[in-house]
Design goal:
204 residues; alpha+beta; 23% strand
Length: 204
């Protein structure tokens, strides 16, 4: 399996910009809420049972297990049933935010990195669509969930045989960009080349 990532500049209209900005805002809220939950749980467990914390902490019952990805993902699914703001954003995008937070905690322990930070509107600059529809690119347009067909500057062609698997939307000072992650199955590609060679030998 070969994986490539190409970046293109988007040319969104006013409505599409509003959808992207709204998605970034909701992603930031989900990140901060989930991070706050984890910090509260950790703070509630770090004080000895026979002394009091010098700062105010939430009292979380002992039967509440650590809030990892799966627990928070279930809570997110439940919250979406009653929260219209969460419903307005693609569910997989929000789940990907929780996965990224979970990976940040894993890296903090394994790679000795710093504690994950809360994000303001300037620090939450991207989000990911982890699954893309087949044939989501046509000419100089790409179809994104909840955004629809959006124009982009096709600075280079997508290599033959590669399929778009993921799309990351990035906001920069110079505009909005999309990073496309593409994959090519080497076995299928070799089979196509072999069949093409056989056909050429028969007709040649």
């Amino acid at each position: 399996m070969i994986t490539l990532t190409y970046e293109y500049k988007l040319i969104p209209d006013k409505r599409q910009i509003e959808v992207i900005e709204h998605t970034l805002d909701v992603c930031r809220s989900v990140w901060n809420y989930a991070l706050r939950e984890r910090k509260d749980w950790l703070n509630s467990r770090k004080s000895p049972v026979n002394t009091c914390s010098l700062v105010q902490e939430y009292i979380i019952p002992l039967d509440i297990s650590y809030l990892g990805y799966h627990n928070q993902a279930k809570a997110l699914t439940k919250a979406k049933k009653t929260n219209e703001i969460l419903t307005s954003v693609n569910a997989q995008v929000l789940q990907q935010i929780l996965r990224t937070l979970d990976r940040a905690f894993t890296d903090m322990k394994s790679k000795k990195l710093g504690f994950p930070r809360f994000k303001n509107k300037y620090r939450m600059r991207s989000y990911v669509y982890p699954q893309m529809l087949k044939d989501c690119v046509k000419g100089e347009q790409i179809k994104l969930p909840q955004i629809g067909w959006i124009k982009f500057r096709k600075s280079r062609e997508i290599p033959l045989g590669f399929e778009v698997k993921q799309a990351r939307i990035v906001r920069r000072a110079s505009g909005y960009f999309v990073m496309l992650s593409m994959q090519l199955d080497i076995n299928n590609a070799s089979l196509r080349i072999s069949r093409y060679s056989d056909d050429r030998s028969l007709t040649g």
